[in-house]
Specification:
The chain is an all-alpha fold and 66 residues long. The protein is built from six helices and no strands.
Amino acid sequence: MDFASSLITSLRNVKKIVVLTGAGISAESGLATFRDAQTGLWSKFKPEELATAEAFRRNPKLVQEW
């Protein structure tokens, strides 16, 4: 059995599957990436200000969305 056939057979017998991809898939889908200079999540907020317990206490919604 070749690889493709073996993979298909294996996938038919699973209940859940996880696929890990890189940032490129997000960008192609129109989602904000972390590093883009104009629209990236890191450009809008300073990580050192939001990645703290105090920031979460002040504004949990913002920290969770970030």
